[in-house]
Give the backbone structure.
Amino acid sequence: MKGADLLVSALENEGVTQIFGVPGEENLDVVEALRRSSIKLVLTRHEQAAGFMAATHGRLTGKPGVCLSTLGPGALNFTTAAAYALLGAMPMVMITGQKGILTHKQARFQVVDTVSTMTPLTKMTRQIVSPATIPSVVREAFRVAQQERPGPVNLELPEDIAGSEAPEIAPIPRHPIDIPVAHHAALDRAAELIASAKRPLIMLGAAASRPHLADALTDFVRRVRIPFFNTQMGKGAVAGGSGLYMGTAALSERDYVHDAVDRADLIIAIGHDTVEKPPFLMGPHGPTVLHVGFLPATVEEVFFPHAEVVGDVGSSLKLLADRLEGKLSNAGALLSLREHILKHIEDRATESRYPLTPQRIVHDVRQVMPKDGIVCLDNGMYKIWFARNYRTGVANTLLLDNALATMGAGLPSAMMAAMLNPQARVMAVCGDGGFMMNSQELETAVRLRLNLVVLILQDNAYGMIRWKQEVDHFPDFGMSFGNPDFVTYARAYGAKGSRVESADGLVSALEAAFAGGGVHLVSVPIDYSENMRVLVEELRSHQVA
Ligand SMILES: Cc1ncc(C[n+]2csc(CCOP(=O)(O)OP(=O)(O)O)c2C)c(N)n1
Ligand SMILES: [Mg+2]
């Protein structure tokens, strides 16, 4: 038995069934151990995509996704994915190679200090220095990656440690861990605050979207009957149909949802993670804010809660609802604003303009996606429109990154969602800029025989930055590019491709793409003049009455 075999049996012990990555010669013992294991090696065409896939596995299942790379250049290609998982709180284990550490037969060829590089990008980074430590190091890696706040861990396995004779050591068994529930004094204090509020409002943040929390959150909202809004990454955390949804804070202020936020005298912020672009800005005269989280709040210039309920969120909320249910006469005070807010958001959603407006695209995508369909966004201007306008009824059915907000993750995250949910409709929505950052993974998606629709919003530009340039009164400069013919491009990968050529053509193109199965790319031209009209001019003149 070699070090690599110990590593792979430790991964099997963790329940790992697949590893994403690009091997190098330093990983060959690990690759051989994988070949003889129950774990599937899924090759990608760039390590960044493997990292985004592993992180998304963690995000959607709560169990760390695993990715593999060689030393130096391969490991460095994981850095953006590490940051994506770190900021986005996604459990992931990255296994990277290294030259031998006992002798230096190739001097410093390809050697980069990956441990130092990864340290600020991970919760834990370790170089494995002896085979005997592998079972405990792997167990610790998975525990650290998975614990609140979840995130990435990097294990560097040098070539000679992987290849050296290892003692037969049994993997360390796993056991369930239940984390503490909030102290009764904190719950009493919080209940008192909520009971005395005149206009309470719940906000669901990124940590509210942890898998398995949806039922507890839905119960809480239904029992206390306080209306709620969410941050971009908190979208869908409460099951649809409650009649209490007030909107999504895609902007930090002055959007229609802020009509409710600005009037609230108490905001119950559940699972807010300040990595997100602020959903509202606290100042000297704002509402009282109660933080409910797995961990204490982080205090920022724009977020400094006045009280905290810290502990397992689901169980703590149940105890809070036990104290409050049926006793809140002001629970629905802000509900009268709901209709007005949602009506504004739906404005022009069916307008027949070509190129299509962002509102129309969001509307049409919602039409073809069943309730449990999953839309995965890349990063660009349309993210604001989807966050604001796309209604979700099921947790984690609109996956977006409002933390690192990196371009290039849309396609890989959708591929992972499609692998985990083979029965569901899954769609990647990408700008023409972000799509091209990892478009090579179309080959991976075709090879894996995924059912996946990739919708490309074509404006031949880095539209989001072009918009900000205009808002800040800079001349239009340096943001436009050309594109390949996306239909031909898709076909070259063995995928299917189609182009939307009229305002009413999007729904039928998407329906046909899903019906046909396989990987299907649909390109649609987008009219971004709505950005200025709505997000600047209309909202500037929209005054809180
Ligand atoms: C890796 C990375 N590079 C640059 C940026 C800055 N950035 C944010 S949005 C954007 C433009 C995105 O263009 P595209 O994908 O075409 O979407 P659009 O806004 O045009 O719809 C850029 C360059 C980023 N977020 N991530
Ligand atoms: Mg673009």
Notes: The longest helix spans residues 47-61. DSSP finds 22 helices and 18 strands in the chain.
